[in-house]
Amino acid sequence: MRLQDKVVLVTASTRGIGLATVQACAKEGAIVYMAARNLERASQRAEELNAMGYRVRTVYNDATDLESYRTMIEEVVKLEGRIDVLVNNFGTSDPKTDLDIEHTRWEDFQATVDINLASVFVSSQAVIPHMKKQGGGSIVNISSIGGLTPDIARIGYAVSKDAIIYLSKNIAVQTARSNIRVNVVCPGQTATDAVMNNMSKEFQDFFLRHTPIQRMGKPEEIAAAVVYFASDDAAYTTGQVMAVHGGFGLPTPVYADMIDLSADRKH
């Protein structure tokens, strides 16, 4: 029970990595708030988890409305008196408009970067005074392998996720004396609904050819990294980036070709 009685707030939490994080934190004894725009869906998920003996509640957050980041923080503090852990899980990109440098309009690039960065900046800015007052806290930001490895498309998403890493390190340095820790989890290709429904089988297979562990990650495996950073197990850890990606990007650039050649020789 590494998060026993801690108050945890998770954004974009009704599915995928966010929902897995809610479940993992609740399992560790936390009181978890699901921040979501669709409160009906969030309430349904919360009821299901509460029926399992967990303590899960909901709070409104609309990623397109910056004020709602501030109000969600204030509402949780009003109800619980504190926030021990903030997990900034929100992130978005429109594959139809977020393309490469030649084909992405500035307006679309700026919109992607703005919303993804704001989700971390505004919520962190709002929670830090409360964490200072209570003697500390933990902020865990979800970036992406796309923030570590340049891509041939989704330039807005990649730049925003890279910026989240650097922003997190800045916040970590600026708040360390207040016992506030800030760390980053960078998921690789993860078997969420968003990935399975929006990325072709060909792309998924191509990506896995360059992943030594040879499978997608599971949302609960990303959540496990979040729990570590949120807990006192990471009490001396701040400003760090954990890539949970099955080894993607670690081997030689010709890794996939070498694996194919090795397989051909065996046959």
Automatic annotation (TrEMBL):
Q: Would you kindly state one Gene Ontology biological process term found in this protein's UniProt entry? A: bile acid metabolic process
Q: Which CDD domains match?
A: SDR_c
Q: Mind telling me which InterPro entries this protein's record contains?
A: NAD(P)-bd_dom_sf, Sc_DH/Rdtase_CS, SDR, SDR_fam
Keyword Oxidoreductase in record: yes
Against Pfam families, the record matches this protein to: adh_short_C2
Molecular function per GO? oxidoreductase activity
Keywords on this record?
A: Oxidoreductase
UniProt cross-references to PANTHER family, sorted A to Z? 3-OXOACYL-(ACYL-CARRIER-PROTEIN) REDUCTASE, 3-OXOACYL-[ACYL-CARRIER-PROTEIN] REDUCTASE FABG
Family note = Belongs to the short-chain dehydrogenases/reductases (SDR) family.
Its protein name is SDR family oxidoreductase
